[in-house]
Amino acid sequence: EVIPTQTANEIISKVKTLAPMLNEVTLLHVKALKFAIEGTNNAAAIHTENASITAAADTLTTVSLSGYEIVKLVQISDTVMTMSITAFESWIVNMLAEAIARKVEDLLINGTGSSQPKGIENANTWGATNSVTVEKTGALTAANVQTLIGLLPSGYDRNGKFVMNKKTLFTDFMPLQDNSKNHIVTVQNNAYFVYGYPVLLSDYVAITTFLGDFKKVCANLAENIGVKSAYDIDTNSYKYSGIAIFDCAPAIGEAIVKLVKATA
Asked: Which are the contacts of 146, defined by CB distance < 8 A and separation ≥ 6?
């Protein structure tokens, strides 16, 4: 048995709410695909009247996304089925959406790209040109953050945002001040900013911090998240399975830089 389309669409809506990183990346709802995203974008030029115009050497980067199944199975007793249809559907939507959203956000950040989606943690081979390392025994400084911002190419600056976990924000970033003794973290209407860059919070970011244009990360979530149900006669219970087909990959690694605390 398949749950109504309206319920499936409700799950997609809730997944986007519960996994806010989905709203930051380039998100599509199609079958397996291969598409192009802007790579090098050269500046416009002044044209001399009547002279031949030479095409700019802009490039496109091709990204191939397939689909990996994210599955959550819920088994409930026959007693639970006695609640009203509206109440039950609301309950099952929340249950499945929360589980799928947690996994999607985890993959968007930590996916290895090997038999699973590729997350921003694996956008680059990290080194001195795209990351800043704080020594294990050292403390984060405003200068570290400034160096990190300087590593992000200016072409990606307009859409630049930080991603970190809540503990990192409040423990490491909040105490920092610039040379004028102003806090580098500001708060506006419950939103946080570091040197003016918006901060996104995710429990799936470890002791690292990312800064980048996350629109350069491509993701694909199937239009309909399938929800199927079946009666299990052996246990007098019902099983509901939520299935999302998801994939993601950073299209342009240079659009993301990383701040990391050394562990050794």
From this structure: 195
The pLDDT value recorded for residue 35 is 63
Short-list 214, 198, 195, CA closest to 145: 195
Q: Check if the beta carbon of residue 142 is closer than 8 Å to that of residue 176.
A: yes
**Nearest Cα residue to 164 out of 156, 155, 173:** 173
Q: What is the dihedral of CA 3, 7, 8, 13, to 10 degrees?
A: -170
Give the single-character DSSP code of 204.
T
pLDDT at 80: 67
Whole-angstrom distance, CA of residue 117 vs CA of residue 114? 7
**Does 53 or 119 have the greater pLDDT score?**
119
Give DSSP secondary structure letters for 189-246: TTEEEETTEEEEE-TT--SEEEEE-GGGEEEEE-SS-EEEEEEETTTTEEEEEEEEEE
Q: Quickly count: other Cβ atoms within 10 Å of residue 199's Cβ.
A: 21
Neighbours of 122 (CB within 10 A): 18
Name the strand (E) or helix (H) holding 100: helix 85-110
- This prediction's pTM: 0.81
